[in-house]
Amino acid sequence: MPMASDESVRLDGYGPSHCQVRLNTDPILQSPLQANHLLLASLARPFVMMFPFQDRRNRSKYGTSTAGRRGTYYMSTKFWIHLPGGQHVQLKIHKSGIFGQPNSYSTLYYQRNPEGQTYPFASNKLDHCFYTGTVRRNPNRPELVTTYVAVDTCRGLRGLIQISNQTYGILPLRCAICPADRLPHVVFPHVTNSIERDAKLPVHWQLTGVRPRKLPRLENLGELMYTIRLAVILDHNLFVTFDRKLDQCIHYIGSVINQATKSFQGIPIDLQLVRSEVWNLNTHFPLNSSIKTTLNNLAIYSARQVRSRNSVNPTISRSLNASLSFSPSSPPLSHQTGANWRYRRAAVPMASTSSPTLGSQHDVDILFTATPFVDAVEYLAVPDSICTPRSLAVIQVNTSETVYHTSRLLSLAIAEVLGLKSFACPSLYSCTSQEILSDGDKSRIRLALLSGMADCLISTGTQDVSAFRVDDCGNGELDRGEECDPTVLANASMPCCNPRTCLADVAAACTHGACCHRCALANRGHLCRPARDQCDLPEFCTGSQVNVSEIQFVLVRSN
């Protein structure tokens, strides 16, 4: 496609009339404007349509593909783009670290044999076309404001661009007359939707006073990096939404995590995706309209997977090394042919975690689900649960929302798992801002890291950190991430508590406290504490509180 000048490949959109005037002078943009009118109508104004220019030392071009000649992707590159308002900036990007070291990532999905039995398949093949970086308005001068870029080049250039406190989105547009690697793009300001963070839910976590038990701390190793290894499940409804294409599912998960890295800038936290589990055939545990019930079911499923991983023979394996190319024309998974997939099969079926890569340890389980919840929340995470088997979160995915919105939900969930809510907002900071994690929130996360509860995340070759990964469920004490913890003998007195996960049913009115009996509040007037002596007064339950907050006075007979 000929590019006459820089001005001829840009169209600023402030309104329909303005676009129509510019359309007459920019015929090269007629096709994408007409083909994408519904998308453009939904974007915040002002936006700009343009063709990104890839600035490479050996081969600069109008095109967004970063694929090399050997099937790999460039380690780094630069793009020149236009921002709304006429700014011409350079995106200086490098390979994102969200997939960790080579071969440390796996995809798990399922197939059926002729007898109808379901088998899990593992693959460590993926197209790593995800990048992060910075924005430079003048390549010869350092930027004086905070910038961040999180994009991918799998199918055009898409992702987010942050300059100071303004975040932009960039997306490729459909264009019937354009080469596949030279699509027009739109850059628009992100207008973030509010996220409910304090809705009343049937949960019973005790945040105040709950601290990790005393463990030996790591020796001072200087500046530490906390690597959070994520295992993400994408449910069957979302698989159907993504046209039953495995590559689209993996691309979506990778995009969400890549954009979530923006929220943790300035904190020594590194997000890594070690496993994606795609439910391409059916649902593997019940998804309830209650987000808390779904979280409880995720905890049971996760515990069962751990037991299977520990008991299975690692020599029995079945894996599929699929070439997961992000081609828009790739057929649905159910119609893939042998020509598109390279695989090897063992003589016997595998357990779902027998692959060495799938058996590798992860730190947080995340469920992406399209289930419509009755609760007024879009996510739920177990607070203070990092380095325990209860480090879980459920994210409600609405595909009509942007990937950026889902990444913000994921960022909040991870922050709460790390212990965000256990620390009050520092007096010198504000914990409310346009950013999903304010400076005050980041300070609270740093305090949580300093407490030692996340020491299992530290990568060090000199000390064993396995001792910092604890499971106290069943010891009879209320520990981090637990709603309840009955001993084996006390299970009957707490019927709402799952003794394997230490999470409570949604029907529980309470799980602990002097006025809590068998998961229900004691009646008003029930004796909570008898008088210690003649100078003391007994305390009675109020019928609405698990602990007596004020002394209920009684008549005292005079001598």
TrEMBL record:
Pfam families per UniProt: Disintegrin (PF00200), Reprolysin (PF01421)
All copies of domain Peptidase M12B, residue ranges: 226-480
Presence of keyword Disulfide bond: yes
Entry protein name: Disintegrin domain-containing protein
GO molecular function, one term: metalloendopeptidase activity
Ranges for domain Disintegrin: 470-544
GO biological process, one term: proteolysis
Alphabetic keyword roster: Disulfide bond
